[in-house]
Amino acid sequence: MGAGKVHRPDVDAPRGGSPATAPSGSGYGGDTGRPVVAVLCGDHRPNGMAKVEQEAEVRYANAEGLADALRGADALFVWDFLSTAVPDAWHAADRLRWLHIASAGVDPVLFPELRSSDVVLTNSRGVFDTPIAEYVLGVILAFAKDLMRSYDLQREKRWQHRETERVGGKRALVVGTGPIGRAIATTLRTAGMEVSGAGRSYRANDAHFGTVYPTDELSEHVGSADYVIAIAPLTEQTSGMFDRHVFRAMKNGARFINVGRGELAVTGDLIEALDTGQLGGAALDVFDNEPLPADSPLWTMPHVLVSPHMSGDVVGWRDSLVEIFVDNFTRWAAGEPLRNVVDKDLGYVPTGTSRV
After folding, report:
1. pLDDT at position 27, please?
2. Distance (Å, rounded) from C-alpha 302 to C-alpha 324?
3. Is 261 a catalytic residue?
4. Which of 203, 200, 219 is CA-nearest to residue 211?
5. E strand or H helix at 195, and its extent?
């Protein structure tokens, strides 16, 4: 692997958090003539890194050691994607060119210094699409068929006949029209549901959603949906988008499903909407404070399903995340376009693109 295929310090300025000069005799940050890759991994290193370890100097680090690992590093792999350690260690990123995060959401690393730098940011888009879509369909079926109540009655050894709801013909509004949102729409349509979407701008005749409404008009369109699914990326524009105003505009008895980010919803307003009966239930996989505190009323509220940020985590998901990074490392080392390049102004990979 040629050193110049990653970067040439004689023609490229460093793109990390601090100015630096290239070390003499090497096109990389290390002393071996190979690129240096820092990996933020906590106590558990990712498996499947043999190819990268053969081609690069790999520095595995936890949050406390990240700054040391970043000095002279050319790339950073954020394997511990829930960690908030990167902003605090950014001052040491004196040569960084590329940052890859092992998640679809990039909000843990999209801080102002990274936004303003020339460091290329990529994510792991594509791993979680189908699993999260299956999760959403699963919780919709659980609500419609009253499965949670059936389980409670079984434990009480009570034989209580009930009638349940149809799924076919129900209306779903998917808020967030990226790849995961499209997978959700396709899956729900297969179950016979009527699906529309909400995104940055209005679109008619969308292949996956039919109609896409602008999210800044969300309260005008949630009222027709039996299920509202939140899968939008977390940005300044989407933070707190599900507030008291939107919940009160929803159909009485509608269900709210959040598989995006906990910060998309104002938790107090959500609890109020559930407590008053405005919402008929909620399936929540993400929360603004994780783990969900033991004293949160969401744990024990009726018709609320709590899962610990696991809607996309199926058997083999960690291997898939490493495979995406290794593939991107191979492209990066060869000077080829990367997959899943994030627009740092938007906060996600623009629809219809995967490379630069």
Report:
1. 59
2. 40
3. yes
4. 203
5. strand 194-199
Distance CA 91, CA 93 (A): 6
Q: How far apart are the first and last CA of the chain?
A: 21
CA distance 194 to 169: 6
To the query of whether residue 236 is one of the catalytic residues in this protein, the response is no
205: left (phi over 0), alpha (psi -120 to 50) or beta: left
β-strands 98-101, 171-175: how paired?
unpaired
Sheet holding 171-175, edge to edge: 203-206, 210-214, 194-199, 171-175, 227-230, 254-258, 279-284, 304-306
133 Cβ neighbours under 8 A, 6+ residues apart: 180, 183, 184, 186, 187, 188
- The mean pLDDT value of the chain amounts to 91
pLDDT band at 345 (very low <50, low <70, confident <90, very high): very high
Which domains, ranges and CATH numbers included, belong to the chain?
3-126+316-333 (3.40.50.720), 129-306 (3.40.50.720)
Q: Counting every residue, how long is the chain? A: 356
The three-state secondary structure class of 194 is strand
Task: Please check whether residue 106 is in contact with residue 123, taking contact to mean a CB–CB distance below 8 angstroms.
Answer: yes
Q: What is the per-residue pLDDT across 58-111, written as a single tens digit (0 to 9) for each?
A: 999 999 999 999 999 999 999 999 999 999 999 999 999 999 999 999 999 999
Check: CB of residue 125 under 8 Å from CB of residue 179: yes
User: Which is the catalytic residue, given 309, 318, 323, 331?
Assistant: 309
In this structure, the number of other CB atoms found within 10 A of the CB of residue 186 comes to 16
For residue 280, what pLDDT band results from cuts at 50, 70 and 90? very high
Catalytic residue among 7, 71, 100, 261: 261
Collapsing DSSP to helix, strand or coil, 238 comes out as coil
Any catalytic annotation for residue 255?
no
Please tell me which residue in 217, 290, 336, 355 is annotated as part of the active site: 290
d(CA 279, CA 271): 9
Cβ atoms of 172 and 195 closer than 8 Å: yes
The string of pLDDT tens digits covering residues 120-131 is 999 999 999 999
Task: Flag whether pLDDT at 18 surpasses 60.
Answer: no
